[in-house]
């Protein structure tokens, strides 16, 4: 359980000389925004604070403020806090040594309190893309990389995905970017869910009680409550770095990530909406963006050679999540993908491994999960016994490619029935729900 509060306490800060608050030495301060910020995004909240002021806790007392607040929350069973409105501090530096000095005092006081009161470093930093705050942070691990999820704004969904991907190029180097919550029962729910799966982030939803799409959530979350989280922050592929997939009318956005034994590339059509410099808001500029075609290759996963290992020859198996296609992709080859706006596809890329003479295998993972390959924890090949042992988490339909029909499959020490599609080499078995949380199954494939 996390509780929200602003870096200044609340949107308007802490009431000066309020009952029980006198020892924080809070005083009214009046935000001064830079001309660049005012020109790009004027804000009614900032306008109000500039007139009425914000109750700013004295920087020398801010640790005490956070510590007393967090100690109380922790005593109530709260696990952490989402600390919002962080960039307001950069507008309040007058009389406190400037914006950098004030921000550093607040961020360091916050982190010291988090460390004392929440054992798992339980803090999500939000509205914090000001460099003063980012460069002052020493232990904050999770940072919101996006604007809010706006369920009622049709213009917001495509730009949400593309914004997080590009912001992650910077933020992902020193923090874990957070993609914000979303609604599981929503026209764009699957689009958002696929992006979270390839984003390598936490999964959380802001559903109304009783308004849930459990079929969708089961593609993200295992029965034990854990997720098949990719290992890295999801970033744009190299050929997506210098295009505009929201406005140029020709580019699909590709976001790559890595699992322990596979890579994944999410492809999204994000065209048609973006920030309008004139209206100062996100708006739809093309109500009917066209269907776009692009391509995916193994090297879109930047670390695929590392995943494949020193003996990998560059050939891989690609599993397309939505279409269910399984394709062998030779080194340097590409696979076409065609998407309408607000459509996506997830390509799971698995380097081929030789397990016997002229017999090749590649793990795919849980076929019905968005991040299928996140289930595969390890692959051990025994050429002498002509077997491969796949260590995997979760339950449900598990798939792997095998160039020849296996002689048998053993799951958890028991021989198990499997399906084999000779036309594409896909072998699949059904893994039962484990009794233990985060249990790893051993799947032995005999050829």
From TrEMBL:
<dbReference type="InterPro" id="IPR008811">
    <property type="entry name" value="Glycosyl_hydrolases_36"/>
</dbReference>
<dbReference type="GO" id="GO:0052692">
    <property type="term" value="F:raffinose alpha-galactosidase activity"/>
</dbReference>
<dbReference type="InterPro" id="IPR017853">
    <property type="entry name" value="GH"/>
</dbReference>
<keyword id="KW-0119">Carbohydrate metabolism</keyword>
<dbReference type="Pfam" id="PF05691">
    <property type="entry name" value="Raffinose_syn"/>
</dbReference>
<protein>
    <recommendedName>
        <fullName>Galactinol--sucrose galactosyltransferase</fullName>
    </recommendedName>
</protein>
<comment type="similarity">
    <text>Belongs to the glycosyl hydrolases 36 family.</text>
</comment>
């Amino acid at each position: 359980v996390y509780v929200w509060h602003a870096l200044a306490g609340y949107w308007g800060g802490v009431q000066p000389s309020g009952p029980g608050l006198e020892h924080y030495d809070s005083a009214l301060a009046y935000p001064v925004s830079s001309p660049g910020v005012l020109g790009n995004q004027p804000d009614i909240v900032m306008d109000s604070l500039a007139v009425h002021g914000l109750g700013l806790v004295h920087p020398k007392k801010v640790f005490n403020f956070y510590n007393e607040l967090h100690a109380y929350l922790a005593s109530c069973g709260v696990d952490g806090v989402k600390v919002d409105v962080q960039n307001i501090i950069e507008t309040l530096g007058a009389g406190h040594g400037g914006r950098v000095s004030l921000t550093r005092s607040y961020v360091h006081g916050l982190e010291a309190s988090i460390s004392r009161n929440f054992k798992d470093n339980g803090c999500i930093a939000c509205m914090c893309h000001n460099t003063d705050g980012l460069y002052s942070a020493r232990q904050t691990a999770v940072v919101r990389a996006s604007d809010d999820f706006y369920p009622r704004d049709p213009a917001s969904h495509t730009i949400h995905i593309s914004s997080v991907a590009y912001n992650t190029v910077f933020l992902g180097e020193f923090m874990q970017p957070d993609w914000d919550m979303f609604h599981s029962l929503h026209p764009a729910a699957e689009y958002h869910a696929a992006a979270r799966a390839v984003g390598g982030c936490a999964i959380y939803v802001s559903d109304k009680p009783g308004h849930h799409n459990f079929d969708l959530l089961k593609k993200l979350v295992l029965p034990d409550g854990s997720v098949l989280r990719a290992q890295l922050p999801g970033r744009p592929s190299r050929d997506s770095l210098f295009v505009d997939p929201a406005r140029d009318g020709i580019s699909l956005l590709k976001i790559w990530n890595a699992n322990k034994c596979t890579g994944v590339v999410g492809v999204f059509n994000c065209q048609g909406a973006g920030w309008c410099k004139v209206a100062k808001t996100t708006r739809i500029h093309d109500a009917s963006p066209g269907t776009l075609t692009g391509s995916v290759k193994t090297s879109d996963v930047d670390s695929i050679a590392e995943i494949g290992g020193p003996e990998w020859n560059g050939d891989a198996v690609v599993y397309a999540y939505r279409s269910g296609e399984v394709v062998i992709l030779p080194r340097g080859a590409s696979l076409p993908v065609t998407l309408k706006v607000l459509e996506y596809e997830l390509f799971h890329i698995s380097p081929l491994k030789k397990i016997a003479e002229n017999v090749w295998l590649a793990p795919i993972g849980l076929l019905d999960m968005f991040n299928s390959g996140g289930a595969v924890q390890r692959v051990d090949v025994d050429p002498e016994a002509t077997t491969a042992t796949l260590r995997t988490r979760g339950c449900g339909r598990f798939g792997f490619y095998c160039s020849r029909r296996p002689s048998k499959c053993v799951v958890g020490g028991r021989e198990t029935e499997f399906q084999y599609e000779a036309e594409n080499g896909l072998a699949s078995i059904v893994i039962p729900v484990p009794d233990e949380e985060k249990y790893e199954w051993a799947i032995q494939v005999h050829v």
